[in-house]
Structure formats: structure tokens, C-alpha cells
Write a structure and sequence with these properties.
Two copies of one chain form a homodimer. By secondary structure, the first copy, chain A, is α+β, with helices and mostly antiparallel strands. Chain A is 23% helix and 30% strand. In chain A, strands 1, 2, 3, 4, 5, 6, 7, 8, 9 and 10 form a ten-stranded mixed β-sheet that branches. Chain A starts with a strand and ends with a strand.
Chain lengths: 244, 244
């Protein structure tokens, strides 16, 4: 048995997230089908993260096991020849049999993209969250600095979460503007359910003055979900990097 | 009667081009419908160019006449509120009644985008032409220089063209790489049917060595369509700028 790790990228617009679901096509389902088609084996694929419906991935990793190992490049070329246009394999490498796409990950980085141009941009509409007023980057940067550290982040988490340990370490968090696109970037050893979408929603409230930066640590410590910002929509969220 | 000029932008993926057609939805049709809906008048819209099915526009201009002029900003805000996500109004201004979106244009600029990355990019697939080998920018730049000038460009034109005067002046033509995206940019006083897609196809043949730069002027003068490159697909073509 040989284990391979695939680095993929996908436009999540058409998918119900990564994880196989009873209703709706998922990226995991497509990857299993296409790997099985390529190898004539029944292959199952394990992902590094459960991305939600509509979320994109600039980088996403998944591993699979096979009895009949092919050269690494054969998986890249072979899969790209049969995958739909919105999923691509970037790289493939053989890994140890105890390597795990999810549990071996040391750090993940997500980005959330806002668009605050005066007029709509038809090319960015599906890939950014359009906001009606100019974002205040200085306030958002100050908010991002406060995110870094080890905290019980349950205030930034959906009530649907199933984990009990809600302490995570945010390793870096920053915001940058490029024209009318403002990108919030956050890296952590792990994320709670909906965490990045709620952190982004809170950053938006900080920008528009609804939440004060001086209150952020207090809001985190309060664990009162309603004191944080809204859960922003998934189409502007990207898994950006995974470090093993 | 007041004439207004709208500056719009659209993702052409879902449209059968600009011009109203018996089969398939066009951008012109949507603009007429939405302007009529906004103004409660029956409005018809005249475009600066007939873009083909699938072609995009970073900038496109169209004019319309109305008996009940609204403030310019009302058209921008009002239309953007009811237009689909893939069409946006960027600006609106009152123009003289003899101003014409098409005939008053002094120059138009198109861009054609190639993608030559080693692995597919799911976010660029619909918006660039994926080519299997690295493009040779130096050869393409030399080709672009040869395009500039006043020529009978019929060799770069579909046999479906209806015009008899096939002399045009290319004002500028250049190529630039940004990562794995190579953009060919061409401005002229006018373009023949399919001209940019055939110029781009010829640039591609120059890059891969099928056509020599030394033969380009000879090929133009020959007027033999088969000596130029293929008509490349529309999804990587953008009307980029119009100068009045």
C-alpha cells in the first residue's frame, strides 16, 4: 500500500463543500470518482479540512492509498485530463503511511476577500463580498493584531460546532488592500466551525464602527456569540495555504 | 430628447454577445429590458461594438435616448440595483444628440489573455486560454511591433465579414507577462470581424515557431487567410477600452 498526498485547487462556486454529502455534489466526491476512474481501483480520499458549500481553495490537500502506485506525475497529468475545469491538481507526492492530510497539518491559512469599489465589478462579484462603504484598513489592521495569540475562540464559532476544546492559536492575522479588494488573511493551528467567516464579519463591524477594537479581548473572553459580528457568506472565503 | 452614454462592464460567459439575437440572451437585450424597467419608457440601446458570444468587456459603451431625463447617477445606481451580477454600470454621462457610441469612437483596445502555467488554474480557466507550452514573449513582442501601422488587415479577418474596406490602423500592440498569464493588447481605429482572435492565434503560432516574424508583412500582404493563425476561442477576449 502506498499513500499519496495531492495538492489541489478549486473554485467552490458549484460545490457543496469538500465533504461527501447526501444532497449536492462535493469536491471529495469528484476526487474519489476521478481517482477511481484513473486507477481502476476503488479509491477513497481524505481531505485536510471540511470546507463549507461555496468556499474556494487556492491550496487544499488530500491523501489516498493505493495498491498499485503510479509515478507521482501520472496522478497530476491523469487527473487534470479528466477533472472538471473548476478543480485542478497542482502537485502529488508519496508520503509515509501514517501521514494524514488533516491531522498532520501544523497550520492552515484562510483568506477572506472584500470588494468596496464604488460600482460593482462583474468579474469579482462571485469571488469577493461586495460591501457598500469603503473599508477602514487601519481599524481592521488593529483588529487583526488582536486576533493573534492563544485564546478560547468560541465567540467566533457557530453554535453548530461539535468540538469541546475551543482553544486555538492564531499564528498570524493581517489585512491588505489592492485597489478595491481588501483581503483579510489568518493562519492558525486549527479553526472552529465558521470561525474565519465570523472573524471577517467582526472585522467588518470594526471597520464600520459597530464594534470597538478596545472591546475585542473582552468580547473574546465573554464567549457571547451575539457580541461578535455576523457569519459572512462563503463565496469570498478561500483556504489559502496548509503547512505540514 | 436627451442622449446618455453608459460605460458598462460585463462577464460575457453567459451571453450570446452584445447584439440582440433570435436565439440566446444578449447583453444588449438585458440593458434594454433593465433601462425600460427603470424608466418605465421603452428604451433602445446602441452599443460601441458587436462583441461575439462569450467575449467579455472591461469597458463597453452604449447610448440611449429618453424623453424623461434622470440625473446621471440615478442610471448608475438604479441599473446596478436591478442588473444581474455579471453586468455592471460604471458611469453615465449626458452627451450631444449626435454623439454615437459606435461611430464617435476614435479607438478601441482589446486584450487577449493566455495562461501557460504548468498546472491548470481553476479560477482562470474560464477567463484565459490555457496553452500547453510556455509562451515566448520575446517572439510575441516582435510580432506585436509588426502589427502597428495602417494595413489591409483582411488576412486577419473571418470570411464572414461584410465590410469591403479592410484597411485599418493599429495604433499600438504589445504583450506582457504577469506570472503565468500573458496578455496581448491591441488598439486600433477599428477592427475587422474576428480580427483580434486571429491576431492572437497568429501570435501563438509565432511563439511556437509555426510562423516566422520575418514573414508577417508578407502574410499580411498576401491576404491569404490560411497563412495566418487560427481564430482563438472568445472566452479569453476582452474589450478593454474605448476612446472617444
Amino acid at each position: 500500500m502506498t499513500r499519496f498526498l495531492l495538492k489541489i485547487s478549486y473554485d467552490g462556486t458549484a460545490y457543496h463543500g469538500w465533504q461527501v454529502q447526501p444532497n449536492g455534489i462535493t469536491v471529495q466526491q469528484i476526487m474519489c470518482e476521478k481517482l477511481s476512474e484513473l486507477t481502476k481501483e476503488r479509491i477513497s480520499v481524505t481531505g485536510c479540512s471540511r470546507t463549507d458549500a461555496g468556499v474556494h481553495a487556492n491550496e487544499f490537500y488530500c491523501h489516498f492509498d493505493t495498491e498499485h502506485a503510479l509515478p507521482e506525475i501520472a496522478y497530476v497529468k491523469g487527473l487534470n485530463a479528466i477533472l472538471p475545469d473548476d478543480i485542478a491538481v497542482i502537485a502529488c507526492r508519496k508520503v509515509a503511511s501514517d501521514f494524514h492530510a488533516r491531522y498532520s497539518a501544523k497550520s492552515k491559512e484562510y483568506i477572506y476577500k472584500f470588494y468596496d469599489g464604488d460600482v460593482p465589478n462583474p468579474f469579482l462579484k462571485k469571488y469577493t463580498l461586495s460591501v457598500p462603504v469603503k473599508l477602514n484598513i487601519d481599524l481592521m489592521a488593529e483588529f487583526c493584531e488582536k486576533m493573534v495569540g492563544t485564546y478560547d475562540f468560541s465567540v467566533f464559532s457557530s453554535s453548530k460546532r461539535t468540538v469541546t476544546d475551543t482553544v486555538r492559536t492564531v499564528q498570524s492575522c493581517s489585512v491588505a488592500r489592492e485597489g478595491d479588494v481588501v483581503t483579510l488573511k489568518i493562519a492558525a493551528d486549527g479553526f472552529l466551525y465558521n470561525m474565519v467567516r465570523i472573524v471577517a464579519g467582526t472585522a467588518l463591524d470594526v471597520s464600520n464602527g459597530k464594534i470597538k477594537n478596545a472591546d475585542i479581548i473582552d468580547i473574546i473572553n465573554s464567549k457571547q456569540r451575539e457580541r461578535a459580528g455576523a457569519t459572512l457568506p462563503p463565496h469570498a472565503l478561500y483556504l489559502n495555504k496548509v503547512i505540514y
